[in-house]
Design goal:
The protein is of the alpha+beta class and about 200 residues long. Among the domains are: about 55 residues; about 70 residues, no CATH class. Helix content is about 60%, strand content about 15%. Strands 1-5-4 form a 3-stranded antiparallel beta sheet. It has a two-stranded antiparallel sheet with strand order 2-3. Strand 2 and strand 3 form a beta hairpin. It is rod-shaped. About 5% of the residues are buried.
Amino acid sequence: MIVTSHWRNVVHTGLWHLALGAVTVFFACAAAAQTQAPPQLGVAPAGESQQQEAVAPDAAPAGPPKPGLFGTLGRWLDDSIGGVAAGLGSARDTVGNIGAQATDAAKGAAGVARDAAGAVARIPAGSLVTGRARCLRNAGGGPDCVGAAETLCRVKGYNSGTSLHVQAEQKCSLSAWVKGEKEIGKCSTETYVTSAMCR
């Protein structure tokens, strides 16, 4: 995406150079047409031809000739080609910089992955425990699974823990199960912590 945007800028810059060159050529031709003397046909009054002959040997050379239409066009083409070449060099540098940035990003990602793997390796292997600890009822009548998770972790040799998996079971009398009927109000729900993350 960056390369596409850059090429778009190069093309726009080239078009601006082209337009600027065309305007320059137009004004150069207009200026040259105004400064040139009208052509002499070689027919003049007798007095003027003698004066011109007398002035001609004394006149100094006017300096280097001004470039014409083709000289101006050539200079404009050279400038445009130089601008396009500079734009291509800039594009090459941009693409090279993108490659270097991608390489640096890949090296950084590899370093982060290596650090993360080291952190995972340092996690103690026995921190996830399984078992079965009953959740006692709290004052509101609901299960208190925080105490059950801590009890499960202490049994496994840890100081404290948090419940990961909780299982609820319905406990009824044996006669209700045999008959296939549940006695209303005689069945209770018991909750157990079956796995915990211990510290």
